[in-house]
Amino acid sequence: MKQNEKSIIFLKQNTQGVYSVINMDLGKFPLSDTSEISRSLTSEEHNSKEEFRKEVLEKYDLES
Fold this sequence. Notes:
Layout: E1 7-9, E2 11-13, E3 19-21, E4 28-30, H1 43-59
């Protein structure tokens, strides 16, 4: 994530009342360009995350 970049983040409250990102890398997505999706991912992992990102944007009507 970058400063001033619009993103969608999925949070869950734990038993202490603190919120944290759920499902680690799959719990946050930039709303714009996906070129910055983790460079440490394999091609298959990147494709899977990009597909999931598209589903999230479609579900919440956030597609550009």
